[in-house]
# Entry
Amino acid sequence: MPLPFACPHCGELTLVDDEFAGHSGPCIGCGRMIVVPRFASPRPAGPAGAAIPASAYPGMPQISPRRRFLFLTLIGVAATVALLALLTILFQPVLEYSRAGSQRRQCAANLRKIGVALMAYEDKYGTLPPAYVEDKDGNRMHSWRVLILPFFGPEEKALYGEYNMAEGWDSKQNMLVAAKMPAVYHCPADEHDETENENDTNYLVYVGKQSAFPGATSIHHRQISDDQRQTIYVFEAKDTAIGWTQPGDLQEGQQGFDIGTDIGGNHLRGINVLLSTGEVRFLRENVDPDDIRAMTTIDGNEPVPEY
# Structure
């Protein structure tokens, strides 16, 4: 049974079948959203109570099948858009959590590749790479990250061929190489903003007298007398401000070990670390900083809980 009503925005009179009572949709006159009323204005009854056809209302516009179809279509589109918006709101936390998990796994994969390259370097040269290479005057020239380039793959080996070991890391030629940072040195969770250098690395060793990377000297993994499953080679960190070719890392005496502040910061509730076994472990944010410091030594014999 048609329901007569006037658009509250433009005043256009319209008859809509009672099946649309309570539905919302655009006015066929002005296009603004309206709600079809649930009760029609009083109408006279025909013989024996029969309903008067809509045509009995003089001057009242009728809805053609085409307009009715358009009205239903617009209502359907509006409902679909509203449903998609609701689903986006409801599932946004799930999507963000899934993305964060994917980034954490990619970061761990980067560290495993670095671990394989470190072991390949050791197999060839008899020791791990030094944290940095010095010139005869004691100036730091190159990073361990440059030294292990040939052990990643053909592209990285070709990039190493472009690097001039006779010049410092910040020479003109070597800065051109620095602009081509391999993806393995970047954690995908660290989305550099415009104030940061996109060639800053997210992977650092700890340079200290008792660490696996004591400085310009180097060790063999057999010199590690501590539990190798609790000895850290490489940390991931956020906003390091250290270029990947730059001979800079975490420094003994200058470095704290609060996860999310001094180290880590790329992932929720913890940090990825590469162990001397080649394994990657995710340390939770509640790990004691003193325990992490103990995990950087190779022969400290410190009691470290099983993490």
In short: Residues 133 and 142 are 5 Å apart (CA to CA). The mean pLDDT is 84. The chain has two domains: 2-63, 106-294.
